[in-house]
Amino acid sequence: MGEEVGAGASSSSARVPVVLRAARIGDIDAVLDIECTAFGDPWNRNAFVDLIGDPRVAFLIADARGEVLGYVVAWYVLDEGEIGNLAVHDSARRRGIGARLLDGAIAKVRASDVDVLYLEVRDSNAAARALYASRGFVEVGRRKEYYRRPKEDALVLRLDLGDASAE
Ligand SMILES: CC(C)(COP(=O)(O)OP(=O)(O)OC[C@H]1O[C@@H](n2cnc3c(N)ncnc32)[C@H](O)[C@@H]1OP(=O)(O)O)[C@@H](O)C(=O)NCCC(=O)NCCS
Hints:
- The protein has helices at 28-38, 45-49, 97-111, 126-134, and strands at residues 4-6, 15-22, 57-64, 67-77, 80-88, 116-122, 138-147, 152-160.
- It is of the alpha+beta class and 167 residues long.
């Protein structure tokens, strides 16, 4: 954590250290800015606020010297977890931040004895699908017209954390 990653929502060419840390209430405005740019059907403020401090939730922020560049949400019950949200500021993409957030969430749920992790992704979301595939997620189902704005199928992906390929 804390290594130099090319990043910066306001200075995209700068190389600044990005750290992963737990989300705080003071992050929510910046999280909502990213959320509303990234998704046509964004979560609202309460959806994020309610997750802060929940012991069965990993809500991690990619922080570049106080600037929120991305976030991930994972929740887990017993041996099963789900990635509920992941987004990176559009000016900070393709610099490894999404991968670091995903790896951070996977590490957190793995440490809580979760064996299997699920998520849903839009069929057309090539960037996210490539990222998840790179971490060993495999397609296990499809939910017809699961998403709104625009209406689209969700693919259900699964990562078996007992699988050596997910290390
Ligand atoms: C998906 C998202 C989080 C990826 O974040 P990111 O910081 O740009 O991703 P990274 O730089 O860590 O990329 C890691 C890998 O993912 C894949 N990837 C990421 N963006 C990609 C793109 N636009 N096209 C193809 N592959 C892509 C690549 O395999 C990449 O590795 P590489 O750069 O070595 O080729 C980001 O595009 C985003 O916020 N999208 C909008 C929100 C969203 O769709 N969230 C997921 C909902 S399920």
